[in-house]
Amino acid sequence: MVEVIAGIVLAIAAGLNAYIPLLGVALLARFTPLIVLPENWAWLEVDWVMWLLGGLLALEMLVDKFPVLDTINDVLQTVVRPASGGMVFSIGVASETAAVSDPQAFLSSEAVWPFLIGIAVAFVPHVLKALVRPVLNVVTAGAGAAVTSVAEDIGAGALTILALVAPVIALGAAGAVLVLLIRRMRRVLQQRRDARAARAAAD
User: Where are the domains of the chain?
Assistant: First the structure.
């Protein structure tokens, strides 16, 4: 049960930032005893893979801070973040899969279900993030992009660590993150409606 909770929290983190939980899990597996990767996911600890994830993370963190670019990035990440969620959920529940060596065997095995669950879990925060960001950029004239992005990166990092150190606490924190995302979406949409009403009244 604890492993499932860890997987859920990691997948939620992936919905905010695809690379933070992947790189975080790889680093923690490589340098700490907090997690031991299943055999078929051990490639995440390879040096060039971690450097690649680090480079992609740096690019993601940079692009996500700028209006318009962040929206384009969210569209591109519609595939990446859920896929990352599937991977980290599978790792979190210690799922032994054939995902790398034999995709056909993977798709026909029971191991595909943790991957699909992780995709679904990560998709929720990703969609909330992607829907809110363009509206937030308009309402704040772009000023909210960097602040929101930093908060999301910090949240993804904190959830990744908590998922492995204190999974139950992490689940509560992940729930709070989802609530905050939903509240932010409602608040931003209300601000946009108010702005439209103000413009209509002025006309």
Answer: 2-202
Long-range contact set of residues 123-126: C-beta below 8 Å, sequence gap at least 24? 123/15, 123/81, 123/82, 123/85, 124/12, 124/15, 124/178, 125/12, 125/15, 125/16, 125/177, 125/178, 125/181, 126/15, 126/16, 126/74, 126/77, 126/78, 126/81, 126/82
Residue type, 20: I
Please say whether the beta carbons of 60 and 152 come within 8 A: no
Taking the C-alpha atoms of residue 170 and residue 176, their distance in angstroms, rounded to an integer, is 10
Distance CA(48)–CA(177), nearest Å, equals 32
Are 29 and 21 within 8 A, CB to CB?
no
114-129 per-position pLDDT tens digit: 888 899 999 999 998 8
- Answer with the residue of higher pLDDT: 167 or 199: 167
What lies within 8 Å, CB to CB, of 177 at 6+ separation is 12, 16, 125, 155, 159
Classify residue 94 as exposed, middle or buried by CB count within 10 Å of its CB (0-12, 13-18, 19+). Answer: middle
Return the structure tokens found at 80: 């990446």
